[in-house]
Amino acid sequence: MILITWNIQWCRGVDGRVDPERIVCEATALGDFDVLCLQEVADNFPHPRLAGADETDQFARLASLLPGYTAIAGIAVDHPGENARRRRFGNMILSRLPVAQVFRHPLPYPADPGAPGMPRIAVEAVIDAPGGGIRIITTHLEYYSTRQRAAQVDALRMIVADGDAHARGYSVTIDDGSPFQSIARPRATLIAGDFNFEPDSTEYLRLLAPFDRGAASVQTDAAPALADAWRARHPGMPHPTTFKLYEKLRPGEPELHCDFVFADPSALARIASIEVDAATQASDHQPIVVTLE
Prior knowledge:
Oligomer: single chain
Structural class: alpha+beta
Helix content: 10-25%
Number of strands: 12
Number of helices: 6
Strand order of the largest sheet: 3-4-2-1-12-11
Strand content: 25-35%
Shape: globular
């Protein structure tokens, strides 16, 4: 199973051209992917609201460019627009493997006066992969507000732990195809996306911290800690640049390393390789390619 995660900057390249077709072509050139996790997908935010963009529904356009894939949209921002159309912005998962269940988890958006920001979401797809079922979660955390980003990290931890508790306690209670249908949720969990923090930051360390074994909550007392897949497969090697490698707002602006793949122990054991593509300039971020066995 090959997974690619990529912040596509509303399909806008370093050259300023917005081109969903180029995004799909570049991703396909990286590998015959089974799952594509995308952040910063836009619908109807024409320039100057988003530089270079038009009214295109990129959720629909990207889905049309990948026939045979289940397209899962995670809308975080939903504004009124012209001509009775909404303006939407968020994340997306596309999978050609069977998708058993989908969850859309709104993330906390606490008030932080004076700080720019936007609502955020984590999109989860329970995928029937060749090596066994796996929870694939993609997200994009807040860029400006440390307070909001910290709250979102804590929420991600609870999403991981809650799913783990469901997996451990799974049993068939209803099997009638109704909304109450019992669907197994695997323990194997992988979270990929743009976290807007650096390796070894407070938020990074918090996300990877062990769960409190003394906690009263059944959701957290048995959940395993997450690991950084890059460090697990490239011990001693620094994280490659994933943001501001080519596109900088000012000369000399530092390169950032804010795109990650995190995994629980059972998912981590299946990761054969993880690499960052440093060549493409189809976005201001670099994609990460993960191969799972």
